[in-house]
Write a structure and sequence with these properties.
The complex is a heterodimer of chains A (about 240) and B (about 240).
Chain A: E1 2-13, E2 16-27, E3 31-35, H1 42-49, E4 57-62, E5 65-66, H2 71-77, E6 78-81, H3 93-103, H4 108-121, H5 137-149, E7 155-159, H6 167-180, E8 185-189, H7 193-199, E9 202-207, E10 210-215, H8 217-224, H9 229-238
Parallel strand pairs in A: 3-8, 3-9, 6-7, 7-8
Antiparallel strand pairs in A: 1-2, 1-4, 4-5, 9-10
Chain B: H1 2-15, H2 18-41, H3 49-77, H4 80-85, H5 91-99, H6 102-119, H7 127-133, H8 135-152, H9 155-172, H10 180-183, H11 185-193, H12 196-207, H13 217-241
Classes of the chains: A alpha/beta (about 240), B mainly alpha (about 240).
């Protein structure tokens, strides 16, 4: 079974078509990237798949559950790490993680075990009792991803997870994302070409809400007749690829 | 359980903000102390401790609106709510989670104000307990206003609307600091069409044990609280959909 099956997904805001008849399928355990310039429809697609926005037309199925009809089931399968920092600033790292455990109805023992597991996996032990609002951007992103992972999602949406981070913090996050490959189905949106190329099993490139291409990085470069993925992206988006 | 987890988080965020202590507790107490000092030198019936304290407890609740609206507006602005909207928390969990934790803070604020007033000479009677108990519907009104403003305003706008406008409205149109009959006319009519003066008169009647006099003020307070709560829930759900 596909982890995600999207069928003719469309989102219109008044006269603007944010996502236009998108159809694709994502396999379980795959790390799938959505690329595109600003306004391409990446974030709107994620919002629809995570039940934050209702589609105007079409549907998508997450492990067989419709985003239109089975929102409760979909929400129990997914976790979202939004584009902006989304942590409770007045709470410590531990309290932020405990909050998410509580929201998903974990027992006290399970919460404690998951908090230990995630803080060790994401290297958060050193800041576990610090207030989230006092952490640097890189630490807050780590916490944000830990908060998304602690609910044991089958599908994880990472919306521009490394935006605004320095090179080291970005490299650290890449390592964390690599460790998740194969265990969780990950949908990643990013503006960084090298990030998509380095991490993804497959990449979809969107423009004006439409899907232009969906393939591996190597195939996309071959299609665009270039060795540079960035150049391939530019050629495809500008419509000059072969 | 899920809702309580969210409510606990909201209580922690509010109580850990130093402004909560400064404005939520410090400011009303300073007003009681200051007005009592003035009263000691120049006696004015309006500022007698039994007359002043009910008004200050109501006025202090306008800061609950500020805390509530601030927290919701910040959560909306930081995408924290967007994260939580993708979890199994329901709309009711969000509304109760933002409303319930402020209620005990409001009751505690009122209780402490009466406690300090007793130290300053307010007679200790069972009526104080009734006054604290009936602060709950008044608190609901102010908390509903917080949910309402937090759902439609940004963090910065909340500071202006709730921090300045609402506190001034609840001060000027409540009869706490001057007798509304002295101004009279349209001003008095407007004041009595709003809930603030009714909340103050409800508390004053309870404190002196004149239970017949709590009506119609109690109905005004409950009516406004329910209307504001209904509008707040509608606006909160609407912003949830537009996330």
């Amino acid at each position: 079974m596909s982890a995600i099956k999207i069928e003719g997904l469309t989102k219109r805001y008044h006269d603007t078509v944010a996502v236009d008849n998108l159809s694709l399928s994502i396999e379980e355990g795959e790390l799938f990237s959505l690329l595109g310039v600003n306004g391409a429809g990446k974030t709107t697609t994620i919002k629809m798949l995570s039940c934050l926005a209702a589609p105007t037309a079409g549907d998508a199925y997450l492990f067989g559950n419709s985003i239109c009809r089975d929102t409760a089931a979909v929400k129990s399968l997914i976790a979202v790490s939004p584009q902006e920092t989304a942590v409770a600033r007045g709470l410590s790292v531990r309290e932020n993680l405990a909050l998410i455990c509580g929201v998903y109805g974990f027992t006290k023992d399970k919460s404690a075990a998951k908090i230990t597991e995630l803080t060790e996996a994401l290297g958060l032990s050193a800041v576990i009792d610090k207030k989230a609002g006092k952490l640097s951007g890189g630490w807050q992103r780590r916490l944000s991803i830990a908060m998304a992972l602690i609910s044991e999602p089958k599908i994880l949406f990472l919306d521009e997870p490394t935006l605004g981070l320095d090179v080291i913090a970005r490299s650290d996050l890449w390592d964390i994302i690599r460790t998740l490959k194969g265990k969780v189905t990950i949908i990643l949106t990013t503006h960084y070409m090298e990030e998509a190329e380095a991490l993804s099993d497959r990449i979809a490139i969107m423009r004006d809400g439409r899907l232009l291409i969906c393939d591996t990085a190597a195939e996309i470069k071959r299609t665009a007749d270039t060795d540079s993925f960035e150049e391939a992206f530019v050629r495809i988006v500008k419509g000059v690829a072969k | 359980m899920k809702m309580l987890t969210f409510a606990r988080r909201n209580a922690k965020e509010i109580l850990r903000d130093p402004l909560t202590l400064a404005f939520g507790l410090g400011f009303p107490l300073i007003l009681i102390l200051l007005m009592s000092a003035i009263q000691a030198n120049i006696p004015v019936p309006l500022f007698e401790i039994a007359h002043l304290t009910p008004g200050v407890t109501v006025f202090g609740l306008s800061f609950m609106t500020l805390f509530s609206a601030s927290l919701i507006a910040k959560d909306r602005g930081s995408a924290f709510l967007q994260r939580l909207y993708a979890t199994p928390l329901s709309s009711l969990d969000f509304i109760l989670g933002y409303t319930l934790p402020i209620l005990p803070i409001a009751v505690a604020q009122s209780f402490i104000c009466y406690l300090v007033a007793m130290m300053l000479g307010l007679e200790m009677t069972v009526n104080i307990l009734f006054a604290v108990l009936f602060i709950i519907p008044v608190s609901l009104l102010f908390i509903a206003l917080g949910l309402l403003f937090g759902s439609i305003l940004t963090d910065k706008q909340v500071g202006g609307i709730c921090g300045a406008l609402l506190t001034n409205l609840s001060a000027w149109l409540s009869g706490i600091w001057f007798d509304l009959a002295l101004v009279g006319g349209a001003f008095k009519k407007i004041a009595y069409a709003l809930p603030f003066v009714h909340a103050v008169e409800l508390e004053r009647a309870l404190l002196v044990g004149d239970f017949a006099a709590i009506f119609p003020h109690l109905w005004w307070v409950i009516g406004y609280a329910l209307a504001c709560l209904a509008l707040a829930v509608f606006l909160f759900l609407r912003q949830m959909k537009t996330q």
